[in-house]
TrEMBL record:
InterPro entries per UniProt: ADH-like_C, ADH_N_2, ER, GroES-like_sf, MDR_fam, NAD(P)-bd_dom_sf
EC number: 1.-.-.-
Keywords linked to the UniProt accession: Oxidoreductase
One protein family per Pfam: ADH_zinc_N
Domain Enoyl reductase (ER), first and last residues per copy: 21-331
MF (Gene Ontology): oxidoreductase activity, acting on the CH-CH group of donors, NAD or NADP as acceptor
Entry protein name: NADP-dependent oxidoreductase YfmJ
The keyword Magnesium appears for this protein: no
Gene name per UniProt: yfmJ_2
Keyword Oxidoreductase set for record: yes
Superkingdom: Bacteria
SUPFAM superfamilies the UniProt entry points to: GroES-like, NAD(P)-binding Rossmann-fold domains
Residue ranges that the Swiss-Prot or TrEMBL entry lists as coiled coil: none
Amino acid sequence: MPRTGLEIQLAARPVGEPRPGDFHAVTVDVPDPGPGQLLVRNTWMSVDPYMRGRMNDVPSYIPPFAVGAPLEGGAIGEVVAGGGDEIPVGTTVSHGLGWREWALLEPRTYRVVDTALAPAQAYLGVLGMPGLTAYAGLLDVGELRDNDIVFVSGAAGAVGSLVGQFAKLRGHTVIGSAGSAAKVAHLTDDLGLDAAFNYKDGPVAEQLRAAAPDGIDLYFDNVGGDHLEAAIDVLNVGGRVAMCGAIAQYNATEPVAGPSNMMTVVGKRLTLRGFIVTDHGSRLADLVTHIAPALSEGRITARETVVDGLERAPQAFIDLLRGANTGKMLVRLG
């Protein structure tokens, strides 16, 4: 009997904050795998802030989503057919065709993951793209150095929460910002950060300077805007910024003002460097080797916010952009 499955398509390009009507759930036929292909039943999928940019029809480092076509993103699934003896039925794989119940995967578009090493969904979080972003952003882009004082914005999110913990594992002083009192408590009480503040409680620059009286040496930027301006003010001479994202402006409908203190970059000889995680894929094996033991030993906390059901993925994404998640936002399909 032919298979059918649900997929979430982009119904319209959002203007400002995405709305439920910008998404459409469609039942489609699921073909059998051809030579070299795998048919996978997805069990977990990821929603991530970068997806908002792909909903706009503008030039970027990655093609935009097409209206009337399924969205894409990180997913974990179990092989149902097509792998042969090399990848037997039941094998768990990570791939990029989320937002659907079934995925037909081409060769070299997936990787087998070891669920004995960590739970399957960890490969969408701490051992996946967010973990790699934090790991490469700290070590390669931010050039983490001995005795650095590190500031991370969006510190309770999927990437930010790992940045803070990875730096703490290496013995650094870490300061984080988040958007609620509960998240601030999570940063200090659960993740072990040295200081944290709620950016809604007052000017970011004042709160950051109070939390870092000796200045900061490395800023991992997930927010942009007032956070970046504040960090430039508080960075020490020779400081560095790893520019990962700017979630504060993802839903903006008008131009967003940049930092007003850019001449400070010159005087302090700062380095501001943007990066895309896909440029650092060679670091993935290092990430798993060094972080999986810390995860299993409880030295890393991989907090998750889980939503059940593919049909609820659009709302999970909307809620993510509103800051409703602590840690990684995941949708459980199976």
